[in-house]
Amino acid sequence: MQRNKRDAIKHNLLLFLVAAAVVLGDQASKAYVKAHLPLHQSWMPWAWLAPYFRFTHIKNTGAAFGLFQNTNLVLGILAVIIVAVLIGFYQKLESKDKLAKVALGMQIGGALGNLIDRIAEGQVTDFISVGSFPIFNIADSCVTVGVGLLILSLYLQERSAKSAIAPSAERGSSSATAENLPEQSSENDHE
Questions:
Q1: Is 120 within 8 Å of 33 (Cβ atoms)?
Q2: Cα angle: 1, vertex 3, 19; to 5 degrees
Q3: Which of the residues 7, 117, 126, 189 is marked catalytic?
Q4: Residue 2 exposed, middle or buried by CB count within 10 Å (0-12, 13-18, 19+)
Q5: Is 117 a catalytic residue?
Q6: Among 140, 108, 178, CA closest to 30
Q7: Per the confidence metrics, is the pTM higher than 0.90?
């Protein structure tokens, strides 16, 4: 599917806007945490949230949620590859598939947000602490929510396709059945 320049810009606008919003929100939140919360310190905005939610400033050399520690270079290269694959997948989406477009924009923005940290600092700033779950950041959240939205989008597309096929199959089978019924003779034919 070849697009002219104007159509390509229009097609990719939502991707750019969502990814840019995620990167900006992620980087702004990390900058705020680094400026106002010392490393390894916690802040709880409301006491009634204890112990379920707090902000805790940590550095992470692994993947989302603290997985695969000390693999910064590998994860950086993997992020570049994943972003390229997601952009390629995005190009194949139909214009009407807004949910999948938003989902991919969130995933790309999250991957780029953490990649910026990896390149600039050699590690990722994490600060959202919920219960005993590993500490994470906005980029991690956007990748995770983006994956969920993409799965939802694919499910809705499949369900829509099945419901579009089902009525036409029923119409086809009912008309075929009517055509194949033997002709019934009326009472007048026997007299």
A1: no
A2: 100
A3: 126
A4: exposed
A5: no
A6: 140
A7: no
The 8-class DSSP code of residue 124 comes to E
Q: How many residues does the chain have?
A: 191
Tokens of 36: 């106002």
For residue 138, the one-letter residue type is I
- Tell me the pLDDT tens digit for each residue of 99-146: 999 999 999 999 999 999 999 999 999 999 999 889 999 999 999 999
Q: Residues 7, 117, 140, 189: which is the catalytic one?
A: 140
Q: Is residue 32 helix, strand or coil?
A: helix
CA dist 94 to 15, 89, 115, 124, 152, Å? Answer: 13, 11, 28, 34, 16
Active site residue 140: yes
